Protein 1
Amino acid sequence: MGLTLPDGGAGTEVSTMSPNWVTTRLDFLSNWGRANSLWPMPFGTACCAIEFMASAASRFDLARFGMERMSFSPRQADVLICAGRLPFKLAPVIRKIWDQMPQPKWAISMGACASSGGIFDTYTMVQGIDTIIPVDVYVPGCPPRPEGLIYGIQLLQKKIKGESFLDRDLREEHLLRPDGLFLPAEKIDEVSEPFGNSVHQTRSA
Amino acid sequence: MTEASPSVAALRARFGGAVLRHLVSCGDTIVYVEAARLLEVMTWLRDDPGQRFDYLTDVTAVEYRDQERPLEVVWQLRSLGRKADLRVKVELDQRQPLVVASVFDLWKGADWLEREVFDMFGVSFTGHPDLRRILMWETYAEGFPLRKDFPLRGHFSRAEQTRQALSANAEAHYSLEELSIAAAYDELPADMQERLAHGERGGVK
């Protein structure tokens, strides 16, 4: 977190700074503002989007956490909420949306399908959106209840409040690698391995 | 209702040997016809005053687990005026190339239905004006997903599937041209032309 020099002076002047009273106060201020006015980019593809809409509506009221302003343009969004399964056909779309979002930005993977492919261990489905974009918070559930999503958002707020502008790696853009993938190929194969009940599917050859 | 539709007797009287056999299943009449004379039979079913099957409900295909059984292509016909249904089937030998005549010239609705059967089963419809994939993206290279020899998770590794998906053009599937509205503009009813001309995209013409 910027406390030590990585290789004896390759970093910029800011990264050589250690946290002091001024920087932590500045961090507190900016993180307080960011955490309490997240503008979500809803990427709703399935039933999780229904629960997401319920979270935003009056009974659960996402506005209590400063998230009432849904940003349907990625260029004005802070947090991408992938609510639902992601087929391979949509993989380049969510990647493009993620690349269009300016820093600082975070991602929430909502529900079992977005986080791991869920029950859709098939030829069409991305086995977890973390093989496409970096994810900050995973919300389990099928679909998660609005309380679950709100808890995930509170976890994200907690994470944001712990960030420091001295950590230069934090705001680094993670673009696709030269081989056209976000993660190394063997990593994708590893996290996409069948697990749980789907291991025993005879038709899955 | 266990009696066969009167269309069967009429078909046999008109086409004789081209009607291979028929059966009644759950009250629906199924007619197996010769692949070579399909177009002739379908034209007659649509145009004969006693038949008037003016609506093509669905085109699909069935492949059985028994590899010796032929693949069946299914046309579900409906006569809106007579309130009658008829299911027409053609059997295709799996050892031969899967080719059958397109009924696009009889029912315009066959366009996307035949594309879907081509996409999922690999059946080629001769005479179809625009036979390409419709559900999977056009560069999809793994084969035909609903065939029995297609593994549930696809042929390629997850990493390769992800790589190919991410290299796809995210804009390709959502253009106005894809929907062919602009191309069909002159054939549309006047009220629909009026609505499209003042659409939020500034109209198609």
Note: The longest strand of chain B covers residues 71-79.
Protein 2
Amino acid sequence: MLARRIIPCLDVRDGKVVKGVQFRNHEIIGDIVPLAKKYAEAGADELVFYDITASSDGRVVDKSWVSRIAEVIDIPFCVAGGIKSENDAKEILMMGADKISINSPALRDPDLITRLADVFGQQCIVVGVDSFYNKDTDEYQVYQFTGDEKRTQQTGWNTFDWIEKVVSLGAGEIVLNCMNQDGVRQGYDIEQLKQARAKCSVPLIASGGAGTIEHFSDVYQQADVDGALAASVFHKGIIPIKDLKTYLKEQNIEVRPC
Amino acid sequence: MTKVMTSAKNVIVDTGCANLYSVKFAIERLGFEVTITDDVTIIQQAEKVIFPGVGSAKHAMKNIKAKNLVTVLQGLTQPVLGFCLGMQLMTESSTEGNSDDNASNIVPCLNLIPTNVEPLKAQGNRLPHMGWNTLTQVSNHPVFKGISEGDYFYFVHSFAAPVSEYTIASCEYGSTFSAAIAKDNFIGCQFHPERSSALGSKIIKNFLELDSTELNQELVNL
């Protein structure tokens, strides 16, 4: 049976892994390559690397770390941040990444999704969606440029409409970052993910809010997501992947043994 | 000084697809040397040939034709291992387009293993079939030495070869399909051994250490 995926997420800034709270106040966690290797050996099913400065700075970013990761790990990994064109995507994939994830550039130029899927195949095109729940209007809204708090801005898109749109354009997977939950470890946004699941015919990855082992079983069982992404609980050693998988297996959730 | 490569024991065929380096790194992690090439002579003289691929069959066949590699690949007699799209290209043809599309596009492939690639019959399961899945049956093919039913491998695809007499391992996702196929010296895996952790590495190692006479032994059909 297809296993539910556990996906540590490593935010990268200037070649270092960093972590912020609600996308802000980043602190350095460590070097990329040893951390990538550590997670692969610990039983992670996949890794995501977000170059969090790239999209919002508009500068050319050194991506040589991508091939250094590809050299050492034997599980799939995805690179996000600053991929704005077919050439950017080709460069990252040629360096050994299995997938690329686009976010702000897809909002600016939705057809980019289709062009990328045509050239590289739908399977390696992930669309990241940063979604904020506005309590006042009771609406889920898509945000862009979330890597830089000074430039973070609301778009005109409703989260679920945008998900439907990107799937129809050829996205092979959706990562839904629930911004209200990011870094605060209070649990995934089950309600939002359930609604997203209903609109999403391709694999859906939950992101934002993991704090305890039970949060993972909740999101798989209640929101039927294909994978769950988390950062701080893994970086800070709060949840060892082995313990997490043992627990999920006990809950009859299909996981790949470590 | 430029070193001109004239021969290599293990080669990865440069199909112009994107995952060449992840395959190369996986082989090098095992301590083997490997060369990425589209040079006809180097490919023909290699002891082992690896044939990777991601993306669409149409796009990849176009690249292979442009590089004049069709007859070269068809004429290989040493062991050849295809990964994912590389496996699919070993078949007679691939049907691109989705399952409810009557005007689907048939892409002729290399016709090395007599089976056809079709849209995966996922029966309502989400596509692409993406992630770690278990093998449901495993034959005694030498490349699968040490691999058992229930072992997890990393799959990413929406098309698959049905189960046939050439199936050497199977997987289930809505329906049962070929996780690996083989005929004579041609072997293909639908999953990605280069991204399937220790068990994937075992398959690559089995292949690189394979004595080609082992391929003549009789297989127990699934």
Note: The two ends of chain B are 53 Å apart (CA to CA).
